């Protein structure tokens, strides 16, 4: 995509089921690995696993399992008497997840599938993990209804997702930052995913715990030095005609310079909902 990004990874291809271009997949894996390493994401994951009391013997599904980080973790928690299935529509990401599981000596199954069409019978699962997936799903209500369908009575769905309107950036002119955020959000299917989850879960017949988890995903300085996501947002705004090339380059320069100095700040809030099937 164009001069700013210099890569085939674009906002329009990021985390789409059909994206198989090697550069784009490599970029997606890098983004997921960086997010896995974020202590704030680990805090939210640990909170959600404890709140839902994932236990030995549970049958679990990781919907939109990506590189399989949580699939592996769920497999360790449920032990040999449990069962974990990773459902991932992107064949390249699924292969990465399978390779990583094999390398870790963890025996879990992955299959192709969409959140809106889970390849599972009704009432067959104790725990559904669905992390930062529904922001990429245009009909998130259909996906949450599908998740509720496969849960057994007493089953729990852990729905963790971002709300990109909560994004904060330092060192980019606020007006330019807003234009970049609008450009970014225009390319994400469901950019304010988190705020709709309570309504969608209750509509699907689930009960939502009143204690909602949240954690700001704060990007490390090294990610903000020439940030790929900022480049893609800037490039999109230039393509939309809402930002000049000069404004885009200045915003990226300014963020990189702040990151070089060690004080750049960029974050988005991820919320976690524990939803129970009565
Ligand atoms: C940001 S990644 C998150 C991956 C993983 N859940 C994690 O937290 O590391 C989004 C994932 O959702 C998957 N995805 C996109 N659209 C989907 C859909 N309609 N149904 C299921 N998964 C989908 C993508 O292929 C990608 O693996």
Which labels suit this protein?
278 residues, alpha/beta, Rossmann fold, eight-stranded mixed beta sheet, 8 strands, globular, disordered N terminus, binds S-adenosylmethionine
Instruction: Give the CATH topology.
Output: Rossmann fold
Structural class: alpha/beta
Share in helix: 40-55%
CATH superfamily: Vaccinia Virus protein VP39
Count of helix runs: 11
| Low-confidence runs of at least 5 consecutive residues | 1-6
> What compounds sit in this structure?
S-adenosylmethionine
Sheet having the most strands: 8 strands, mixed
How would you state the average pLDDT, rounded? Answer: 93
Number of strands: 8
The radius of gyration is: 19 Å
- The CATH architecture term is 3-Layer(aba) Sandwich
SSE string, helices as H and strands as E: HHHEHEHEEHEHHEEHHHE
Describe the model.
- There is one protein chain.
- This protein has 278 residues and is α/β, with parallel strands linked by helices.
- It has a single domain, classed as Vaccinia Virus protein VP39 (Rossmann fold).
- Helix content is 45%, strand content 21%.
- Strands 1, 2, 3, 4, 5, 6, 7 and 8 form an eight-stranded mixed beta sheet that branches.
- β4 (125-131), α6 (140-150) and β5 form a beta-alpha-beta unit.
- α6 crosses α8 and α7 crosses α10 (228-240).
- Bound molecules: S-adenosylmethionine (SAM).
- S-adenosylmethionine is lined by residues 15, 17, 32, 63-66, 69, 88-90, 93, 114-115, 131-133, 136-137.
- S-adenosylmethionine (SAM) binds at residues 15, 17, 32, 63-66, 69, 88-90, 93, 114-115, 131-133, 136-137.
């Amino acid at each position: 995509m164009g001069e700013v990004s210099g890569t085939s990874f674009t906002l329009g291809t990021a985390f789409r089921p059909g994206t198989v271009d090697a550069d784009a997949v490599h970029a997606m894996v890098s983004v997921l690995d960086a997010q896995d390493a974020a202590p704030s994401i680990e805090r939210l994951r640990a909170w959600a696993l404890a709140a839902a009391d994932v236990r030995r013997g549970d049958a679990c599904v990781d919907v939109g399992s990506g590189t399989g980080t949580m699939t592996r973790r769920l497999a360790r928690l449920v032990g040999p008497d449990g069962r974990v299935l990773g459902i991932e529509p992107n064949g390249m990401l699924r292969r990465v997840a399978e390779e990583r599981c094999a390398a870790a000596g963890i025996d879990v199954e992955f299959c192709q599938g969409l959140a809106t069409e889970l390849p599972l019978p009704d009432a067959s699962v104790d725990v559904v993990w669905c992390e930062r997936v529904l922001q990429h799903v245009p009909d998130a209500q259909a996906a949450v209804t599908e998740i509720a369908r496969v849960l057994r009575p007493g089953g729990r769905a852990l729905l963790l997702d971002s709300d990109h309107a909560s994004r904060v950036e330092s060192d980019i002119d606020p007006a330019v930052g807003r234009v970049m955020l609008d450009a970014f959000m225009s390319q994400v299917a469901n950019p304010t995913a988190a705020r709709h989850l309570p309504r969608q879960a209750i509509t699907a017949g689930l009960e939502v715990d009143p204690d909602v988890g949240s954690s700001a995903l704060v990007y490390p300085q090294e990610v903000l030095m020439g940030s790929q996501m900022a480049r893609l947002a800037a490039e999109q705004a230039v393509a939309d005609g809402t930002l000049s090339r000069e404004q885009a380059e200045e915003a990226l320069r300014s963020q990189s310079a702040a990151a070089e100095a060690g004080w750049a700040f960029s974050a988005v809030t991820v919320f976690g909902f524990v939803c129970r099937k009565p």
